[in-house]
Amino acid sequence: MNSMRVWADISLENIVHNFREIKRTVGEDTRVMAVVKADAYGHGATAVSRALEEAGADYFAVASLQEAIKLRSAGIQTPIMVLGCTSPSQTGELLHYSITQTVFCSETAHEFSQAALRLGGKLKVHIKVDTGMSRLGFVASNPKELELAAEVCALTGLEVEGIFTHFATSEIPGDPFQIEQLKLFDCFCNSLLSRGVHIPIKHSANSGAIINIPESHMDMVRPGLALYGLYPGKNLEDKINLKAAMQLHSQVAQVHNFSGPVTVSYGRKYSSESEIKTATVTMGYADGLFRTLSGKMEMLVRGRRVPQIGSICMDMSVIDVSAVPDVKEGDPVTLIGRDGDESICAEELADYAGTVSYEIVCALSGRVDRRYVNF
Fold this sequence. Notes:
Number of helices: 11
Helix content: 25-40%
CATH topology of the largest domain: TIM Barrel
Largest sheet: 9 strands, mixed
């Protein structure tokens, strides 16, 4: 049997290809901030960032200071921005590791400024503007928030390098809400400019907007999902040529030939009608295989699709291999990727689970080995 019970094969070559496709789409004059939060969407942030730094990424984006420090400790020199929340008490670490911080409210911005001044430094920040996500940011439709943002830009302890917003429906081609958000963002930026506030870098485009909203490309774009070869929406394959960067595999632990009807796994939710050949697979929900996929998904064994049956367990799952000859212990099982003429993509699993492909790849746990190979 394979020494790895569950493993993901990651193609850095394909990730670099996707980066270059994005660069070709937005043009040489537009910078690229590669989003490598959540361990590069399950692909391994350190390895991915090293490959993209060499390929020419202008910036990296992470969700937390902890993620940023991990990249700096791995030798990444490219600018890194924290998209989420950081306590002003950690200003010293932000300065020490040269990390750019998102600022989304006046009170915290003042605390960052005061802390930076006490430490004898100047903290580089990007201003977050809420144009319709209703999540984080200075609310673009509120005139008072504009005044607060202008005051933040004047704080002596901060260097306001950038300003950005985030789309709510960028994966839907032609959705009118995109234009509303763009107009609000442009108006907010122009209003700051009329007050004498010039901010060098404006950015708004995530993966969907890179593909669907060319006017959103501005000074910099923020691809996440597209870097990993996954499309943010349906029917976008003809707009940009992305290559999937992950294949997910497990293996057969045991094969059973049952001569009569049996029930399978917890709750006995699956019953065979007659004789059946099953294979126990060494992957379960603690590895990131959602229990909600129980009885819905398929896996690939010896180039054939086979149904998963019964409840997915913490460390194992069961498949029906009655139609596959010569299955044996140690055979590889493909959950995402290609085996012969058959293939399964993350989007397929997402559809069965009622979620998005982001969650499928991000959910892979730390006990899933990552191998960096070309395919």
